[in-house]
């Protein structure tokens, strides 16, 4: 019965409306930034080959001008979300477009893109346009100032999961006891104005590592608790501004700084809207709405979503050995800026009929970013080996493809990464353990 | 006052954190003067090297002028010597494509091989001295001059005759002079621009995309991997084309001293890695010292030692190439000198392309994008 009560509980829309506007505006800015940096061209038009996700090989880039139109539409729907205009349709279209673009090439996978996809997905199901929106103003939806409490709380829950799991991921020996990879990254920033001199000291790396882990694990709770909220929010700003200065992580810090505003009280958000000249008064008594069939379906879907959110990051335990080394089960788990990994992978093609071999430079086929990702992520190495097979078999008949791969993880020195005697063209893609990845053996 | 107690909690936590790390090793710091590193590169490697390269190219130009005025065998021989000297000098500065030389796409402008001799002959006949644009990269620079002074006829007497030809001789000399002028312009431009660029270079600290160190490490890799390992040895040897060798794709086809050029290139790599003063050999602050200060290791050995050992092995293997590279490349031999040299060079790559940039926090093969 508690659940039934909770589902009927209503809250003021102000926090949700602030979140809607902030999300829409930041997405619009992100798209404008992405476009103006020429990344639509370099990431979605110029590459000759795209690393699709397993099961999503049907996702293809739309070329020129298709990709530009797609990004244009995405920007428009982001603006509509901010304005609350045709909100639900906009949210659905934005979610689909954004996710489609992310599925084109896993080279471009970023945790914060995944985060944006999830936030957009959740926004589809909540009445964030019931007030302070063009929809409400123009009577496209019934204007109301009270929304179900869950429609605000799911964002807090999702954000909490992101932070907490990012913190859990930091609880590993390298991060805590070696201060890796910060011990490698920080000295390279020693020319940063004002604080740069600190980065040459070892204790700074240890302090940042421990502080970062403690921050991620505790911040959802400190934001929930009203007594610590302002202090916590100050920490949010300090933490993310620092990461923005130190690392090339684009819009992520700003998205988090703005998204965490959802933890603030109704009164806080109401006063924000009042300052902007909007009324926040609730003039009708909350109506009791029944939890209908649709609501039940929604409830189940959200339950499944959050169950997956809680479980997916642990799928790596099914693969054994060192997750950072083999990266099976690494993505979609809030492992953010967690390791220093670099590698070098080239290929040898063997013509089966003659046994003759040739060395292939993947840089002749891939963009620099694709090359970097392919060199250290075995699922991409395998995909590219299959691509080479497709490229060369018409000319040379059956070929075998071998990888010559070296990877260095967290400053431990490069080691052979993939068994160079294994013909990768004969290995299947998929989720099964890749036994041709050599063991890490620290 | 309740808020104060939570503040207290934070401050307490902070001190617990600090004190738990109270270990003498915590005060250790990376003891490396990055400004001194860049200053050494600018003042003792790059500027002197481009200055010397400029002198060598000007000597080549003077020899071209002498030969044009008086096409004799002895003047031709002098010209051939100055060409080799300038080309050997190039092998060092080829690693230094940063700032003024990067602006000019230095390597593409002066050393794309093999030269397109058919197009060169067409251009001579049509008096076409346009050298700009990527499509003209193989009608100019060292490989083109190699063709013009070593390869236009069977022997030196006949080459002199080729240029003394009453009908076409002067057009041929003009083309030789134009191509050399182009080279002189490039060498002069870079040499003149470096002193002014020097402070920009030294002050561009850090290892991010676009920092001096970031560019240097990337260019060091490109030159070593793509131009030395692949271009000078790999492609001729047949390891990149199913054992089909390419004796015609060597760096110096007509003068036939590609091995000397390859040797100069790999030796230059070692000098630059160790930050030795150009032409003097005095030990300066180089990548080796940088990596030592960072404590970088591979397989329990200092990374700087491992890199020096593998480069030295490459020097040995290239020195051991028995005949000229183009003769060695006439047939494929999986245990031949060229393949052994290629394998030795290949063994350096993971160390300089993975370990070194990783230890220094340099992004290799960079392209602007976000990470997380």
Automatic annotation (TrEMBL), chain A:
<dbReference type="Pfam" id="PF22777">
    <property type="entry name" value="VKGC_lumenal_dom"/>
</dbReference>
<dbReference type="InterPro" id="IPR007782">
    <property type="entry name" value="VKG_COase"/>
</dbReference>
<keyword id="KW-0456">Lyase</keyword>
<feature type="transmembrane region" description="Helical">
    <location>
        <begin position="12"/>
        <end position="35"/>
    </location>
</feature>
<feature type="transmembrane region" description="Helical">
    <location>
        <begin position="68"/>
        <end position="101"/>
    </location>
</feature>
<feature type="transmembrane region" description="Helical">
    <location>
        <begin position="293"/>
        <end position="312"/>
    </location>
</feature>
<dbReference type="GO" id="GO:0012505">
    <property type="term" value="C:endomembrane system"/>
</dbReference>
<keyword id="KW-1015">Disulfide bond</keyword>
<protein>
    <submittedName>
        <fullName>HTTM domain-containing protein</fullName>
    </submittedName>
</protein>
<feature type="transmembrane region" description="Helical">
    <location>
        <begin position="113"/>
        <end position="134"/>
    </location>
</feature>
<keyword id="KW-0472">Membrane</keyword>
<dbReference type="InterPro" id="IPR053935">
    <property type="entry name" value="VKGC_lumenal_dom"/>
</dbReference>
<dbReference type="GO" id="GO:0019842">
    <property type="term" value="F:vitamin binding"/>
</dbReference>
<dbReference type="InterPro" id="IPR011020">
    <property type="entry name" value="HTTM-like"/>
</dbReference>
<keyword id="KW-0812">Transmembrane</keyword>
<dbReference type="GO" id="GO:0008488">
    <property type="term" value="F:gamma-glutamyl carboxylase activity"/>
</dbReference>
<feature type="transmembrane region" description="Helical">
    <location>
        <begin position="203"/>
        <end position="224"/>
    </location>
</feature>
<feature type="domain" description="HTTM-like">
    <location>
        <begin position="8"/>
        <end position="268"/>
    </location>
</feature>
<dbReference type="Pfam" id="PF05090">
    <property type="entry name" value="HTTM"/>
</dbReference>
<keyword id="KW-1133">Transmembrane helix</keyword>
<feature type="transmembrane region" description="Helical">
    <location>
        <begin position="231"/>
        <end position="264"/>
    </location>
</feature>
<dbReference type="InterPro" id="IPR053934">
    <property type="entry name" value="HTTM_dom"/>
</dbReference>
<feature type="transmembrane region" description="Helical">
    <location>
        <begin position="146"/>
        <end position="166"/>
    </location>
</feature>
């Amino acid at each position: 019965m508690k659940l039934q009560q909770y589902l009927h509980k209503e809250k003021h829309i102000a926090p949700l409306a602030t979140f809607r506007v902030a999300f829409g505006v930041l997405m619009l800015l992100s798209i404008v930034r992405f476009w103006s940096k020429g990344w639509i061209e370099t990431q979605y038009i110029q590459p000759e080959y795209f690393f699709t996700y397993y099961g999503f090989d049907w996702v293809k880039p739309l070329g020129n001008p298709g990709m530009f139109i797609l990004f244009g539409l995405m920007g428009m729907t982001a603006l509509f979300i901010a304005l609350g205009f045709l909100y639900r349709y906009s949210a659905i279209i934005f979610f689909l477009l954004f996710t489609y673009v992310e599925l084109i090439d896993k080279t471009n996978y970023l945790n914060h893109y995944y985060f944006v996809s999830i936030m957009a997905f959740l926004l589809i199901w909540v009445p964030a346009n019931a007030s302070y929106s063009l929809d409400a103003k123009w009577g496209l939806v019934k204007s109301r100032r009270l929304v179900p409490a869950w429609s605000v709380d799911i964002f807090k829950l999702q954000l909490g999961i992101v932070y907490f799991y990012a913190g859990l991921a930091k609880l590993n020996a390298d991060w805590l006891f070696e201060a890796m990879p910060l011990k490698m990254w920080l000295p390279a920033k020693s020319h940063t104005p004002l604080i740069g001199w600190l980065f040459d000291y070892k204790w700074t790396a240890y302090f940042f590592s421990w502080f970062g882990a403690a921050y991620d694990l505790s911040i959802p709770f400190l934001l929930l608790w009203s007594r610590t909220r302002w202090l916590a929010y100050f920490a949010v700003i300090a933490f993310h501004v620092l990461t923005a200065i130190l690392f090339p992580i684009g819009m992520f810090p700003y998205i988090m700084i703005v998204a965490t505003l959802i933890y603030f009280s109704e009164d806080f958000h109401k006063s924000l809207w009042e300052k902007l000249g909007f009324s926040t008064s609730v003039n009708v008594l909350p109506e009791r709405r029944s939890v209908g069939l649709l609501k039940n379906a929604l409830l189940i879907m959200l339950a499944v979503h959050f169950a997956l959110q809680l479980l997916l990051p642990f799928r790596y335990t099914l693969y054994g050995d060192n997750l950072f080394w083999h990266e099976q089960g690494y993505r979609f788990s809030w492992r953010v800026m967690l390791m220093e990994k670099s590698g070098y992978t080239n290929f040898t093609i063997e013509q089966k009929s003659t046994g003759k071999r040739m060395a292939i430079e993947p840089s002749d086929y891939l963009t620099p970013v694709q090359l970097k990702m392919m060199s250290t992520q075995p699922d991409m190495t395998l995909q590219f080996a299959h691509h080479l097979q497709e490229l060369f078999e018409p000319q040379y008949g059956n070929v075998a493809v071998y990888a010559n791969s070296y990877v260095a993880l967290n400053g431990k020195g490069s080691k052979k990464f993939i068994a160079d005697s294994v013909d990768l063209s004969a290995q299947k893609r998929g989720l099964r353990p890749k036994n041709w990845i050599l063991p890490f053996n620290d | 006052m309740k808020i104060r107690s939570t503040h207290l909690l934070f401050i307490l936590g902070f001190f617990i954190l600090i004190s738990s790390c109270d270990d003498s090793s915590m005060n250790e710091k990376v003891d490396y003067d990055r400004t001194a590193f860049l200053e050494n590169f600018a003042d003792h490697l790059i500027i002197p090297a481009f200055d010397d390269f400029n002198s060598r190219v000007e000597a080549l130009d003077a020899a071209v002028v002498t030969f044009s005025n008086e096409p004799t065998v002895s003047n031709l021989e002098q010209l051939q010597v100055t060409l080799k000297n300038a080309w050997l000098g190039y092998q060092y500065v080829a690693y230094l494509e940063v700032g003024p030389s990067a602006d000019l796409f230095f390597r593409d402008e002066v050393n794309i091989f093999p030269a397109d001799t058919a197009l060169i002959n067409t251009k001579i006949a049509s008096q076409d001295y346009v050298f700009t644009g990527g499509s003209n990269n193989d009608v100019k620079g060292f490989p083109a001059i190699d063709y013009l002074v070593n390869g236009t006829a069977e022997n030196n007497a006949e080459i002199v005759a080729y240029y003394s030809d009453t009908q076409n001789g002067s057009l041929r000399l003009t083309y030789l002079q134009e191509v050399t002028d182009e080279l002189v312009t490039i060498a002069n431009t870079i040499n003149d621009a470096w002193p002014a660029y020097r402070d920009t270079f030294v002050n561009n600290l850090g290892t991010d995309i676009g920092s001096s160190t970031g560019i240097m490490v990337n260019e060091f890799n490109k030159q070593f991997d793509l131009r030395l390992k692949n271009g000078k040895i790999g492609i001729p040897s047949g390891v990149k084309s199913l054992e089909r060798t390419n004796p015609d794709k060597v760096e110096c086809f007509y003068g036939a001293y590609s091995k000397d050029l390859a040797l100069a290139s790999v030796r230059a790599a070692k000098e630059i890695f160790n930050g030795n003063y150009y032409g003097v050999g005095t030990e300066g602050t180089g990548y080796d010292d940088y990596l030592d200060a960072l404590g970088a290791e591979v397989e329990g050995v200092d990374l700087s030692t491992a890199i020096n050992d593998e480069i030295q092995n490459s020097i040995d293997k290239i020195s051991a190439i028995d005949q000229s590279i183009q003769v060695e490349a006439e047939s494929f031999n999986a245990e031949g000198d060229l393949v052994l040299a290629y394998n030795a060079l290949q063994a350096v790559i993971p160390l300089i392309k993975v370990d070194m940039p990783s230890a220094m926090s340099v992004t290799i093969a960079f392209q602007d994008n976000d990470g997380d």
